[in-house]
Write a structure and sequence with these properties.
single chain; four-stranded mixed sheet; 11 helices; 8 strands
């Protein structure tokens, strides 16, 4: 990177930290250092593949002035470069409520490397620095609450997202016997739940129901994992679910209420709930 900076001093500006400051604070430092009218996101070892990707998105956002966030489809590949799928949202332009609905209902997500945003808001809110693993979609929520729409281009894939064997998405497919990895993904999901609760406090009151459902969805998934490796932690997650019931009241301590909660948010994985009925 230092060599590239020396080779292209007018195009590359490195922001280096003496120590690891964490994902959120690093993202904020880079974001607030951007000087252009638009900001294109790219992280990790993902990469862009279309020579006119940036031109296409800039031209589009110039044309559609209500577009605050512009995304496109991306190729998802494995470690050997094999195509797994093409990922993207085939939806018309959406505002904050539509985004929250999709965030709840869609198992896939917007690939970060496909996103370009209008950089009118250069100063990010302080609460984003408190997040641990959910900076990207929290940023989209905050930007959409400022106005504007999210547009998804109906174009060919213009970036690549690598799916690693040790990555979070892959670990979700683990067997019940792989306790070490299960514990890691459980820790990640509990961080995501904590992030969602922070975001919840900064979503307009009339839209908080969507964030409440998202938080419950994460905790339900966490309960499934915790039940296989740590019954005490499962009970803690379950108690949290009870407090997040639809009417906000505490639900009596009965495992059947997990199924009620799962049905309320449309949680698809019900087989494990039946197993809980028989074993607790």
């Amino acid at each position: 990177m230092l060599r590239l900076k020396e080779e292209f001093p007018d195009k590359i500006r490195l922001i280096l930290h003496e120590q690891n400051i964490g994902m959120a604070k690093n993202f904020i430092a880079v974001y607030e250092a951007c000087a252009g009218e638009y900001i294109a996101l790219l992280e990790g070892d993902d990469y862009w593949t279309h020579p006119r990707k940036l031109d296409i998105q800039v031209e589009y956002m110039h044309t559609y002035t209500d577009c605050g966030i512009c995304a496109h489809s991306a190729n998802v590949i494995d470690e050997k470069g094999n195509l797994i799928k093409i990922q993207g949202w085939d939806v018309p332009p959406i505002a904050i409520e539509g985004f929250l609905q999709l965030l709840l209902s869609r198992p896939d997500h917007i690939i970060t490397g496909s996103v370009m945003i209008r950089s009118e808001e250069k100063k990010l809110p302080e609460w984003i620095s408190q997040l641990q693993v959910s900076v990207d979609w929290a940023l989209y929520i905050w930007l959409l609450t400022q106005g504007g729409m999210l547009h998804h281009l109906q174009s060919e894939p213009m970036s690549v997202y690598r799916l690693h064997t040790g990555g979070i998405t892959h670990v979700l497919r683990l067997s019940k016997n792989d306790n070490d990895r299960t514990i890691k993904i459980l820790a990640h999901q509990l961080k995501a739940a904590n992030d969602a609760e922070i975001v919840f406090q900064h979503v307009p009151l009339d839209l908080q129901i969507y964030m409440r459902k998202r938080i419950m969805n994460i905790y339900l998934s966490s309960a499934r994992l915790a039940y296989t490796v740590d019954r005490a932690l499962f009970q803690t997650v379950y108690d949290t679910l009870c407090q997040l019931s639809p009417n906000g009241r505490y639900i009596p301590d009965s495992p059947r209420h997990l199924a009620i909660l799962a049905k309320w948010i449309g949680y698809p994985q019900t087989e494990w709930l039946s197993g809980i009925y028989r074993t607790i």
